[in-house]
Amino acid sequence: MSAVAATPRSRHRLGDGVAYWLILPLLALEGLFLAYPILSGIASSFVNPDSGGYDFSNFSTMLADPDFWAIMIRTLVFVLLVDVAVLLTGLGVALLMNRQFRGRGVVRGLLTIPWAVPEVPVAITFIFMIDPTFGVFNLLARMLPGVTENPQWTLDPTLAMAIVVTVTVWKGFPFYSLVLLAALQAVPEELYEAARLDGASAWRQFRHVTLPGIRPSIALLAVLAFIYSMQQFTLIWLITGGGPVDATLTLAPAIYMQAFRFYNFEYAAAMAVVGLLFSVLATLAFISVQRRLALDER
């Protein structure tokens, strides 16, 4: 018999080869719809709109533009507010959902509604809610001491920023809540029992048992929240349009305006590269934190 039976090692190599072939279509789609647009955008950012050649003129113009730095400061303020608020809200809701109560499954299902609803209907709904004439937010505002008139939500810079932050957090917190809920349920119950036997209070249990157990998830979600808020466009654009007086004009709407209102595509590409760099830096910071946490656990 001339045929030789395949050894386990050869079968293992054959399986690896099939796996690589099966993943090729996914890699091709990623390259076509993700990698190519990114590389094309980076290349466009170096195109001089006057000469058509490649140089750093767009970046030098951008770095010398005070409006660009105002946009970046506004973006970082928006990102910081959203990042902190969505993580705190997600953690608080996850802690509540981790408790035993009747109808918990139904509440968990309802919790996903804000995340499932598209951003355009969310923006339209909140536009009606903040309408200065009949919006329900006016009723809540007039309950506060000293407020006797309906606030002009989108005409006041501070209120406009507060509204877009609130809507962004409301839209995104279910995802962070569910991830943190899964992390909370993965913390061994034996650790809580040992802490209670040692006389630890609820706060000490949270600080020394819960937080260390979910710390990797919080670090990951912080990066995802950073990227989520950095690229937020639809809610800001539909609710405030970047106003009033550019008070809510963050990086993503500014890129859109440069590209499709002023037709300055090369300058818009340069601004997009800056946003990409910030996202990459946030990802590298997450990797560094993860490595440090892994070393601490050892």
Description:
- The chain is mostly helical.
- It folds into two domains: 1-45, no CATH class; 64-297, MetI-like fold.
- The protein is 75% helix and 0% strand.
- The chain contains 13 helices and no strands.
- Helix 3 (66-97) packs across helix 10 (202-230) and helix 8 (157-185) packs across helix 10 (202-230).
- The longest helix has 38 residues, at 8-45.
- It is globular, with a radius of gyration of 25 Å.
- The protein starts with 7 loop residues before the first helix and ends with a helix.
- The model has no long low-confidence stretch (mean pLDDT 86).
Mean pLDDT: 86
According to CATH, the fold-level topology of the largest domain is MetI-like fold
Estimated helix fraction? over 70%
**Class derived from helix and strand content:** mainly alpha
Following the backbone from N to C, one meets helices and strands in this order, namely HHHHHHHHHHHHH
Biggest sheet, open or closed, and with what strands and sense?
A: none
